[in-house]
Amino acid sequence: MEIKDQEATPEQKAAIKKLHNEEVRKSKISAYIIGAVVCIAATFVLKLKVFDFIGTYHHLADNLLFAGACSFGLSILSRLVQGQIAKTSLEKGLVYNLIQFTRLLSFIIIVFIFISFLNANWYTAAVSLGLISLLLGFALQTPIASLIGWFYIIVRGPFKVGDRVQVGSFHGDVVEINFLDTTLWEFAGSLMSSDLPSGRLIRFPNSLIFQNQVYNYSWQKIPLVWNEVSFYITFNSDLDWVEQTVRKACLQQLDQKTKENVEAMRDQISEILVEDIEIREFPFVNFRIHQNNWVEVLLIYIVNPKQSSQTRSKIVKAVIAALLKAPEKVSFVAEGS
User: Fold this and answer.
1) Element containing residue 73 per DSSP (H, E)
2) Distance (Å, whole) CA 249 – CA 206
3) What pLDDT was estimated at residue 31?
4) Could you say which of 83, 113, 139 is where a domain stops?
5) Which of 3, 6, 122, 296 supports an S-S bond with 91, CB 3.0-4.6 Å?
6) Which Pfam families match (predicted)?
């Protein structure tokens, strides 16, 4: 199974699909409108003499109902904005992040509305919000750090949904970036010796990215990684013929998109401020002497990181089949040597 670049997870697709669903959208907006109307109507009902018994709480009830009406109105606006975002042609991962950011912003504004109406003036509201923030800062240090980590991920972009990454000791494909944590679909790990999905999900707090290195194997500018296959032959093999045969067999197993990306990688590397970096003829073969007096053949090629295991398997079978066709030109190390 494979996660495509910038592809949303099933949960994210379901959320975006709901936003496209006109019936769901209309029902949500209708519920918010009814809630706003009920709050406004309740303010007039409270003015009736029958409710005089609440006395000093009359003003508090009015403020709460008015804040509720404003919050429902803001929720309607937020829902409309989310619907427009979902209909854009942006990448699915970016659409999901924008929708999450809109929801978070709406929640923050609603909280501030209630605090404002519960206080006599803006200055008192600001002081109250400051004191609450200070108390929450001490009590919720890790969640707040994770929320800041979420902002960092969204703005700085060390990885996006669909990228294959390593954060600390965690390896996986990013399937969800939430306000407080990130979820990876693990590849390799303790259950697998290859880079195929292990079937486990890894969820870690976003604050972890401030404490560990982040390796992105699916960087947008260079979405490919180097990979290699090695095997051993004897000294009496025709090394030039082996090199050409191995390269030809490897090229036949690589798709056209990978071949085209080699030129793009050359251009990217030529622009960076590091000298003496050069991509040689692709794919290329290195020879080196093994400690047991064998010749190690090292085939080096570029591959999509999410297809490296499958591609390596196809290349190994193709290379072995091609070399075995000419036993007079190449001889392998004896079994058990």
Assistant:
1) helix 57-86
2) 43
3) 85
4) 139
5) 6
6) MS_channel_2nd (PF00924)
Give the residue, 13 or 322, on which the prediction is more confident.
322
Segment among 137-146, 149-158, 232-241, 313-322 with least mean pLDDT: 137-146
- The values of phi and psi at residue 211, to 5°, are -115, -10
Residue at 331 is within a domain: no
Closest CA to 171 of 314, 31, 305, 8: 305
- Per-residue pLDDT of 96-140, as tens digits, reads 777 777 887 888 888 777 777 766 555 555 555 566 666 665 556
Burial of 319 (0-12, 13-18, 19+ CB in 10 A): buried
Distance CA 18, CA 32 (A): 17
Contacts 24+ apart (CB under 8 A), 277-283: 281/247, 283/247, 283/250, 283/251, 283/254
Phi, psi of 19 (to 5 degrees): -65, -30
**Do 98 and 20 reside in the same domain of the chain?**
yes
Domain, as residue range, for 174: 155-216
Indicate whether 144 belongs to any domain. no
Give just the sign of the alpha carbon dihedral 176, 182, 188, 189.
negative
CA 255: distance to chain centroid? 25
Q: Are 12 and 176 within 8 A, CB to CB?
A: yes
Model confidence over 73-97: pLDDT tens digits? 888 888 888 877 777 777 666 677 7
Final residue of a domain: which of 193, 216, 239? 216
Between 25 and 84, the more confident residue is 84
